Structures are given as C-alpha cells and as structure tokens.
Amino acid sequence: MSHFLAPVFEVGFFESDAVRTAVIVGAAVAVVAGALGVFTVMRGQSFAAEAFGDIGTSGGSGAFLIGAAPLVGFLVFGVLAAGAMELVGIQRARGRDLATGIALGAALGLAALFMYLDSTIHNTTGVVVTILFGSIFEIAGSTIPLVAALAAAVVAVLLVIHRPLLLSTVSPEIAGARGVPVRIVGATYLLALAAAVALCALTIGSILSTALLIGPAAAALRATRRPGRAVLLAAALGVAAMWLGIVLAYDSYYWPPRGNGWPVSFFVVTIVFVVYLLSGVPAWRERRRAHAATARRAFADDRGTPHRATAG
C-alpha cells in the first residue's frame, strides 16, 4: 500500500503532528463553512461574509499585538461587527449593504494601525502574512478543542434556526406574517456567520476566508436546489478541497526549489475555484442542447417540414 501511496503522499506525511492537526481542524472548518455558506449564498449576503473576513484582519492583528490567539481576535471582532451591523439595520438588502460598508471601513482602519504596531513594536512582518493568508500547519494541537467547540456551537445554532431562517430567506414578509421573529433570526444567523468566517480565517487567512465559505456552497446550489442536500454537498466539497490542499502543500516542500513549499491557502482557493467552474458544466451543456433543439425546430419551420414530435 505504501508503494502505491508514495507518489501522492511524501515521506512523513502520516507521522506529522502538524498534518494531523491540520486535517482535523480543516475538516471541522469546512463542514461549518459549507453549512453556513449555503444560506449565505441564498440570502445574497456574500458581501457580508467578505466583510467579516476583512474585519477579522483587525481582530487577528490586534490579538497578536496583545499576545492572544488569532482565533480569539477573529471571533471577537466578528461578533462586534455583527452587533454593529444589526444596530445599523439588516432587514433589507440596502440596509445590510450600508451596515456592512460602515463596519468594514472602520475595521480596515484599525487593521492598518494594528499591523503597523505589530511590525514596529514586535519587529516582525511574518504575522501579517499569517493573518492575511493563513498557516494551517502552524496551528497548535491545543487549539483543536476550541475549534471543535466553536464548530459544534455554530452547527447547533443553525439546526435550531434553519427552518425560520429558510422561510425568512425566501420571503421575509411571509415569515413575519407567520409570526417568525425575522430580526432575531437574522441577527442570530449573522453571529453564526461571524464565527464561521473566524474559523475559515484561522485556516486559510482572513482575506481568503470567503472562498471556502462561498465557493463550495455556490457549486452545491448549482447541482441541487434542495437546501438540505446543498448543505451536505457543500460540506463534502469543502472537506475535499481542504484535505487535497493540505496534501499538495505538504508535497510542495519537496518540489523545486526544495524546502520552501507553497501555502495551503493557495491550493484550497484554487481547488474551490476549479470546482465552482466545473459545477457549471452540466447547466452549460443543457443550455447548448436546448439551443440546438430550438435551432432545429426553427430550421424545420423554415423548410415547411413537420416536427418529429407531431409528424404522422
């Protein structure tokens, strides 16, 4: 078996503690991202997810400045941003965009300050790359319980609110008429989204976190319109992209020039992008068949011949 796996897994892959931690954390994050991502795409709040990722830059750099874990900073700033967006107004699309823009602008200003202080006070620039683009191989094994607890909490919240959330996503007016507390459900979802983005930022970086959240979900919704199936498919696609990205990133240390390696975030984002493109192939082929059928019917009409369906 090792002989067949040798071309895929480099020496020491299965014995590495960093790899085992990355595999566990990456899978947990991908499942949460897939679940939240489907509702994010359906609600048209991809911009809010992107904003949470950028806002997380402030939290991660601020956490490093005071010696705290980056995940804590990602989470705290995400929750604060969610609260600020709720206060400004998230009921309608225009209000959501306005609230997101205000919170994003303020957070990016803080990010610039914190990163400047990180580079001057601590005399290091590596933290900027880690926060922006992630470094899943550097996640400590002691972080696994925190990640698992946070992921389980997000999934539990989604299980509780998924029915009213789905109804309010399809039609807020009908949901309100049926007694659904639309604002409370939306605010709860927003907090869960902030936590999911924080987990994504921990693995592939704050500015790339949206790719893991939106890409698999968008591909899944192209394949099926049923939300339950889309959630499961998005989670599976996210886990596959994460694990394949980990394998390729580990193997890249043995590619020329040896000893450098490529970041996991690059592979994960690239795989997600390719998966999204491929998910559109069936619909493209269906459109081509429909267009060809229409052209054949038009040609038959021009020649005055009966259609095959009505001939005889």
What does this molecule look like?
- The protein is an all-alpha fold and 312 residues long.
- The protein has a domain at 17-210.
- Helices cover 78% and strands 0% of the residues.
- It is built from 13 helices and no strands.
- The protein has helices spanning 2-5, 17-43, 46-66, 70-88, 93-121, 126-133, 144-170, 172-177, 182-204, 209-223, 227-251, 264-279, 281-303.
- α3 (46-66) runs antiparallel to α6 (126-133), α3 (46-66) crosses α9 (182-204) and α10 crosses α11 (227-251).
- The longest helix is centred in the middle third of the chain and has 29 residues, at 93-121.
- The chain is globular, with a radius of gyration of 23 Å.
- The N and C termini lie far apart (62 Å).
- The model has no long low-confidence stretch (mean pLDDT 84).
